[in-house]
Amino acid sequence: MGKGCVTVSKYFLFLFNLIFFLSGVIIMGFGLWLRLDNQSFTAVLNNSTSVKVVCYTLIGVGAFSMLIGFLGCVGAIYEVRCLLGLYFTCLLVILIAQITVGVLIYFHKEAVNDEMFEIVTKVLDKYPGSNSTTEQAWDFIQRNMECCGWSNKGDWDVNMVIVNSSRLLFPCSCQNISHATGNFSTSGFCEAQTPDWPVYDVGCAVSVESWILSNMWFVLGICLGVAFIELLGMILSICMCRNVQNGITEEYTKVPKYL
C-alpha cells in the first residue's frame, strides 16, 4: 500500500470513528431515555429486571463506543499502532457482545412478555390513585392510546380500591371522551352513575406491543448501522496496523508525549 493510500485510509478511519462516536452518543442517549422517561410504558416497567438490564446495557455500550471512537480517532490521526490494535480488539469484543445480546433477547422474548404481563397486573391490582410516577405513566398510556386495562376493562375488577369501595368507581384515565359530560379527571378514580362504566372497551396490550416493537426496530436499526461501521473500522485499522508495522508510515515523532 502506497503512501497516498495510507493517508486516505487514515482519514477514512478518522471519519468512521467520528460516526462511531456519534452513534455511541445516540445509543447511550436512548438508554438514558428509556431509564429516566416518566411518560412512557417503560415507567410502568421500572421494577422489571429485564428492562433495567436492557437500559443499562444500552448506556454502557454507548459510553464504551464513545471511548473506542475517541481512541480510534487518535490512533488514526497519529498512526499509533498500539492504539489501532486496541481499537480493533475492542471493536471485535463489542461486535460479539451485540450479537450475543441480540440472540439472548430473541430466545427469551416470551419470558420478557410474561414478566411484563405480571408487572402490569400488579400495577392495576395495587393502583391506589395517589398520582405516583408509575400511575402517571399508566394513566398516560390509557388516556393517549384510548384503552382500558391490559386485556380489557375487566382487568380493573381486581383493583383493591374499586373492590372495597361502596361506590361505582372506575379509573378516570379510561374514560371514553365521547361519553364524557362536563369536566372530567384524567387520573385517579371517578364515580360511575351505572354499573356499565363509560370507558374504552379495548385493552392496552396490542397498542403497547406495537409501541415496543416500533422502538425495538429503531434500536435494531441503530445496532445494524453501528455494526457496519465497526466492520469498516476493523478493516481499516488492521490495514493501518500492518503498514505501520512494516515501516511504510514513519510518523511516530508527531505523537504527543502524553500518548
Automatic annotation (TrEMBL):
It is a multi-pass membrane protein. GO terms for cellular component: plasma membrane. Keywords: Membrane, Transmembrane, Transmembrane helix. It holds the Pfam family Tetraspanin. It comes from the Eukaryota. Gene3D superfamilies: Tetraspanin (1.10.1450.10). The chain crosses the membrane at residues 12-36, 56-78, 85-107, 216-239. It is found in: Membrane. Its main location: membrane. The keyword Membrane applies. The keyword Transmembrane applies. CDD domains: CD37_CD82_like_LEL. Belongs to the tetraspanin (TM4SF) family. PANTHER family: CD82 ANTIGEN, TETRASPANIN. This is Tetraspanin. It comes from Anabas testudineus.
